[in-house]
Specification:
The protein has nine helices and five strands, in the order αααβββαβααβααα. By secondary structure, it is an alpha/beta fold. Strand 2 and strand 3 form a beta hairpin. Helix 2 crosses helix 3.
């Protein structure tokens, strides 16, 4: 089979830019960008170019922790939220507050600061409601910021059901847990930030790629925003047809 330098260069460029992407993810991205290539050829070029990704072995979860989640059928049916922690180069700890729309798996925001209180959580969620609409439900662990009177009073006033997962069962919040793992691998573990602004800027750039470029197998091998836009277009056509 004849070589295609343009395709090969694109595969190498993607692998260098997104070092945590393995061959299947790179293949899906090439197909999404319009390259005509089968998975065997992608694998062959991937091996020839020495792009093999070294992966850490994952700890196998006990069977009782694996509980399937209901797949939402529309945006804003359920958001998942969670905190993560990391440290700057000088040793100062900081936190991230991650918010995901479960329908398209798109990250609505990642808020970053040294301290993220319940009041801050409410401000962030309130802004997201203004930008994206109000979710029917929010899923989280039992962290004090989520259990606080401030957060629960806000949710009640907005008419939002707050679903707490069982203690010690992160698999019940699997959408955001998987997102956290990707964010950890591709951003937090890949960089040593000197300042919060560096962390915020890199995260903002990464979110654009995650939401608008990176394909996801769970949503038809599309980027989250494209998947959500298709739903919006279908709704517009349905409304127009009903009229």
């Amino acid at each position: 089979m004849h070589s295609d330098p343009k395709l090969e260069d694109r595969l190498v460029a993607l692998a260098k830019t997104h070092r945590a992407w393995g061959c299947p993810q790179l293949h899906r991205q090439l197909r999404h960008e319009g390259y005509r290539i089968n998975h065997k050829r992608t694998q062959r070029i991937y091996d020839e170019k020495g792009l093999v990704l070294r992966r850490r072995r994952r700890r196998r979860l006990p069977e009782h922790a694996r509980q399937p989640l209901v797949q939402p059928i529309r945006p804003n049916q359920c958001w998942s939220v969670d905190f993560m922690s990391d440290s700057l180069a000088d040793g100062r700890a900081y936190r991230t507050f991650n918010v995901l729309d479960d329908y398209a798996r798109d990250a609505l925001t990642i808020e970053i600061d040294i301290s993220l209180t319940a009041n801050r959580v409410v401000r962030v969620l309130d802004q997201l409601c203004e930008w994206n609409g109000v979710p029917e439900a929010i899923r989280s662990d039992n962290g004090p910021e989520f259990r606080s009177e401030t957060t629960q009073a806000w949710a009640k006033a907005r008419g939002i059901r707050w679903d707490f997962i069982e203690p010690g069962c992160p698999a019940q919040n699997a959408y955001v847990e998987r997102f956290n793992g990707t964010y950890r691998l591709e951003v937090l573990d890949a960089h040593q930030f000197r300042t919060l602004n560096e962390a915020r800027a890199t995260t903002t750039d990464w979110l654009t790629i995650y939401n608008e470029v990176r394909t996801h197998s769970s949503i038809g091998h599309l980027p989250p925003r494209v998947f959500k836009q298709r739903w919006q277009q279908q709704q517009s056509l349905f409304i127009a047809g009903s009229g």
